[in-house]
Amino acid sequence: MDTKAYIVLANGQVFEGKSFGAAGCVTGEVVFTTGMTGYLETLTDPSYYGQIVLQTFPLIGNYGVIPADYESGKLHLTGYIVRNWCEFPSNFRCGGTLDALLKEQGVIGVYDVDTRALTKIIRESGVMNARLITFSGDPEQDVQAADEIRDLQIRAGLVAHAGRIRLMEEIRDFKVENAVASVSGSAAAVDKTADRVFAESAAYRAVPVTADGLKINNPEEAAREGKGKKVVLWDFGAKANIRRELLKRGVDVVTVSSAATCDEILAQNPDGVMLSNGPGDPMDNPQIIEEIRKLSETGTPLFGICLGHQLMALARGAQTEKLKYGHRGENQPVKDMDSGRVYITSQNHGYAVVSGSLPDDAELSFVNVNDGTCEGITYTDFPGFSVQFHPEASGGPLDTGFLFDRFIGLINSVRY
């Protein structure tokens, strides 16, 4: 039975749709992603913590649920909005339906919505908070939803109705808090051994790709340069595929939580440190920023991805800013400032490093072709670099996977 659902935007606009997944009421920040595939990676990406994800591609769920493709052990988004969801998926790896997954994880979903119109609003006005109000069909469970809809339907003559005012204030005042600490370590549930990573990458041809676009199908060849090296993965909400890409290069990977200190990381005697992706405003993490500053001064090779890129920049004196609607999807073009070559990348971020704020010992290495924002930094006073996009790109393009090889090369170039 179809049950009604509502999306109440912070600007007062209301979209009516239908409910799938879990039912109830929840508030979050609405963001849109343009990915045509990879919805499972989106759902399990810790970087979406506290957000309501809007898929611009009109049909979601057609290959079902495949746990082997998860980027972490659970769903982290607050809500999910799609045009249509596929009730009868078809794929030889399928292990269930999207609706069942959302119900199991307690994530509210809304479908049969004009996602194109909703995306246009976000593009014009910028990301904004919203309230999802969905019904289960059970009157006893739907008391809160019914009350909130009743408040919202008060007519203009009674706009001062306390319930409506209170609800709209709750929507506007919502803020994602404690984001990094809430998701750090969430990928551990889907960690795989190096042997299994090699076997699966060979089976699905998800093997390392060189800067020339050539696939390295021989595991021994792919791992040769990294053998005997140890990388600490500093987990701010890491996607599982970051660890897998490191393992494919032959390095040993030790994961530490977001609360780790510089001294604790150095106690691992690492040859390099990977700063992972993660959710939220990078400026909300002053303690982590300070520990990164200390670590950078030790001369340890560093590689930052997404949030890790932003945190490293802040640690070195740069500034960050919130983008109007961010970059989320698998078709973001970035330009290599050295070669002039353009790569297609996978991205998921709402903040960016301000290019004009880079210190003298930092060079802009990549820029976004669409809006000119900072997409990469190379540091000249210590062995470190970072990128705003996702070179591990699961699911997404493999164009920039060679950056992991660049990291291994950086590690091997450092003499202790």
Describe the protein in words:
With 416 residues, the chain is an alpha/beta fold. Helix content is 27%, strand content 26%. It is built from 13 helices and 18 strands. It has helices at residues 39-43, 98-105, 115-125, 143-152, 162-173, 179-183, 194-203, 219-223, 240-248, 262-266, 286-296, 307-315, 402-413; strands at residues 4-9, 14-21, 25-33, 51-55, 59-60, 79-81, 84-85, 108-111, 128-134, 230-234, 252-256, 272-275, 302-305, 320-336, 342-353, 362-368, 374-379, 384-387. The strands form 3 sheets. The protein has a 9-stranded mixed beta sheet, sandwiched between helices. A 7-stranded mixed barrel has the order 1-2-8-6-4-3-9, surrounded by 4 helices. The protein has a two-stranded parallel ribbon with strand order 5-7. A hairpin with a 4-residue loop joins β17 and β18. The longest helix is centred in the middle third of the chain and has 12 residues, at 162-173. It is globular and about 70 Å long. The relative contact order is 0.13.
